[in-house]
Design brief:
The protein is built from 2 helices and 8 strands, in the order αβαβββββββ. The protein has 232 residues and is mainly β. The chain has an 8-stranded antiparallel beta sheet. The protein is elongated.
Length: 232
């Protein structure tokens, strides 16, 4: 059958079939996409908020600040063993006085008070061993005997100086001193028509040794010396 002999309806049907075939040839073939299984969320998944770490901007890491503990230096109390703190020598800074009693012969002869008493202060003047000791002081005495026949008066003035040293091992310290007495004495007798004066002057030295103890005593003919310490 030629194209000119086909009825119009048949031609129209053929035209539609041709158009439909062309349209089917231009439609792209769709390949079905495989749906992957839901993976386990990770720290970078948008489905789960990541847990901040020590370096996350959401939280600053805790900083441990060391606390300074002050070092306490113990203060020496001097109560440790005896070898830790040297003991102070008793001679160091020593001070005291010598009580001196001197027999006044002319007064004793007529029954007057026979003894002149005085004190001589002394102290250590050096800072090293042996420790130098120095001191000085006066003694004055005056007494009068009144009788029907007249009077008998005695006067004595002495300047005394002491020099020496304090030395010795701890616990056995002692004083070695020289006491020098310089002065004058005057006896005046008034017996009616008789009047006489009997002067005397001179110097006497005494060598004295005392243990460093309160009340230690040294004595000789006509004199007694007693040691008194300010801090016994």
């Amino acid at each position: 059958m030629s194209l000119h002999n086909c009825p119009f309806s048949y031609l129209l049907l053929c035209l539609c079939l041709a158009v439909a075939l062309v349209a089917c040839d231009n439609t792209p073939t769709r390949t079905p996409t495989a749906v992957a299984e839901d993976p386990t969320p990770t720290a970078t998944s948008f489905d789960e908020t990541p847990t901040p770490t020590a370096t996350s901007e959401m939280e600053e890491p805790a900083v441990s600040v060391p606390t300074s503990t002050p070092t306490i230096t113990p203060t020496p109390t001097g109560e440790g063993p005896a070898g830790d703190v040297p003991s102070k020598r008793r001679c160091e800074g020593l001070a005291g006085q010598l009580e001196i009693q001197v027999l006044v012969g002319p007064a004793e002869a007529v029954g007057l008070k026979p003894v002149a008493v005085g004190n001589v202060p002394f102290s250590v003047v050096g800072s090293g061993s042996p420790y130098t000791v120095e001191g000085q002081g006066p003694i004055s005495y005056e007494a009068v005997l009144q009788k029907e026949w007249g009077s008998y008066a005695v006067r004595m003035d002495l300047d005394m100086a002491v020099q020496g040293e304090c030395s010795g091992e701890e616990g056995s310290e002692h004083l070695d001193l020289v006491l020098e007495m310089t002065g004058e004495q005057l006896v005046v007798v008034d017996a009616g028509g008789f009047q006489g004066e009997y002067p005397w002057s001179g110097t006497r030295s005494l060598d004295l040794t005392f243990p460093l103890e309160e009340g230690a005593t040294a004595e000789g003919e006509g004199w007694v010396v007693v040691l008194h310490l300010n801090n016994p």
